Amino acid sequence: MCETRPMAPGLPCSDPTHVALFYRGEREYVDGVVQFAAPAIAAHEPVAVAVPGPKAQLLEGTLRELGATSEIFDMVELGRNPARIIPAVETMLTRHPGRRLHYVGEPIWASRSAEEIAEATRHEALINLAWPGADIRVLCPYDTRTLDMAVLEDAELTHPHMIVGGVIRPSTRYRGPSIPPGVDRPLPPPPGNAAELGFGLEELVSVRALVAGRATVAGLAADRVSDLVLAVDELATNTIRHGAGRGVLRVWSSVTDVICQIEDPGHITDPLAGRRVPVLDAVGGLGLWTVNQLCDLVELRTRPAGTVVRVHANL
Amino acid sequence: METNLTVDLRDQQDATVLIVSGELDMASSPQLVAALERLDPGGRPVILDLSSLEFIDVTGLRVLLEARERAREDGVALKLVNVSRGVRKLLKLTRTTELLDGLESR
After folding, report:
1. What is the rounded distance in angstroms from the CA atom of residue A10 to the CA atom of residue A30?
2. Which of B26, B22, B19 is nearest to B57 (CA)?
3. What is the ipTM of this complex?
4. Which residues sit opposite A251 in a β-bridge?
5. Chain A residues closer than 8 Å to B55 by CB
6. How many CB contacts within 8 angstroms connect chain A with chain B?
7. Which of A50-59, A82-91, A279-288, A301-310 is predicted with the least confidence, judged by mean pLDDT?
């Protein structure tokens, strides 16, 4: 595993840095996290935990009793858009310079939509590329009682190591930091009643007007309409700048979301685009970063032949 | 190209004021760039009044940041005034708030 991804170059190759914890029930869950946190507690190193709400409370109490220095986050909020998690952890790392960070992240739970789980699985794969050189260990709990088999199989593809039944082992299915094919398939086509607009630089104003109109009619609150308009404007600007100048916008809504899609002939070659904390004087990358911060879910499919970005605002 | 941006110059005795109104994006930002290049502040501070700026994106933000950089190189004081909630939100999101420190008043 180390030859593909030395997350912390000083570590011996056997030191697992990105581990899936398959757990059945609360006891295996708490035991797994406590075992993971033990070296951090012994060395007085920071622990960060981002798991869904009720579990966050459970772990917070346990870790406090053990004397861990920990920060606890509700993953339902922090990871609503899974593309925000990697930069959030980057921010945690910068708060603890020169120290090893022990991070527990549970971005996938059974009540998430299939689209969210696909993007959270992409996030899991990208962890293997994120924070090069950083001194960090990552534990990702998976609830085997409630998650689909396909989700657990993807976890074996995205994690170099697994803990199953309390025992750690290398994942025999891990093949390096690639996106599992099951979560990178072309998106289903937009519904036939989606509004459609071909655009270039001349139509940037119309792009925003179409999104604002449709989102307002669908019942999205005014400040969230502004967020969605800005997000789609950034995507359209990227298309005009990098994607051969023209693209197609489609807008529709479901029972739960207003959805906007931008399609263009460009190819985004950086898998971590939009997932790095902006640095002062950054030359590029702020557009996708902004989109990830503003939208509840961002589905990205990019190939040499073209790119589709589908963004969601929850109603 | 038709855009939703207007840039009005108000020469005051003690400052040069640019009133930037409407929507600042990739299509309209060349208008602001051109207006900034035409300025001849003659040692007076330059004030960008953003009270009627209804929309700004990352491309527009870059124009503001570059204007600030150029002003610093030229030794000109540049201030943003009446920065709207939308602009503030974008600055915060892009972590560029500190780039505008000392730029903003009121």
Report:
1. 29
2. B26
3. 0.93
4. A195, A260
5. 208, 229-230, 233
6. 53
7. A279-288
Name the 3-class secondary structure at A259: strand
B79 phi/psi in degrees, rounded to 5 = -130, 140
Task: Assess contact for A298 and A122: CB atoms under 8 A.
Answer: no
pLDDT of residue A193: 96
DSSP annotation of A210 reads: H
Q: List CB contacts of B30: < 8 A, sequence separation 6 or more.
A: none
pLDDT digits (tens, 9 = 90+) for B6-52: 999 998 889 999 999 999 999 999 999 999 999 988 889 999 999 99
Question: A115 is written with which tokens?
Answer: 């689209």
Q: Where are the alpha helices (DSSP H) in A218-306?
A: 222-242, 286-294
Put simply, whether A205 touches B (Cβ < 8 Å) is yes
E strand or H helix that includes residue A306: strand A306-314
pLDDT digits (tens, 9 = 90+) for A99-148: 999 999 999 999 999 999 999 999 999 999 999 989 999 999 999 999 99
Phi/psi of residue B29, nearest 5 degrees? -60, -30
Contact between A118 and A80 (Cβ < 8 Å): no
Give tens-digit pLDDT for A292-304: 999 999 999 999 9
Question: Which amino acid belongs to residue A166?
Answer: G
Q: What whole-number distance in Å separates Cα of residue A308 and Cα of residue B1?
A: 27
Supply the pLDDT for residue A2.
41
CB-based contact, A289 to chain B, within 8 Å: yes
Q: In the block, which residue shows the tokens 């993953």?
A: A75
CB atoms under 10 Å from CB of A267, counted, come to: 13
Query: Side chain identity at B9, as an amino acid letter?
Result: L
Alpha carbon distance A280, A282 (integer Å): 5
Which of A155, A151, A254, A237 is closest to A201 using CA atoms?
A237
Q: Which residues pair with A299 in a beta bridge?
A: A310
* Contacts with A245 from chain B: Cβ below 8 Å: none
**Rounded to an integer, what distance in angstroms lies between the CA atom of residue A276 and that of residue B50?**
29
> How many angstroms from the chain centroid is the CA of residue A274?
11
CA distance B94 to A17: 30
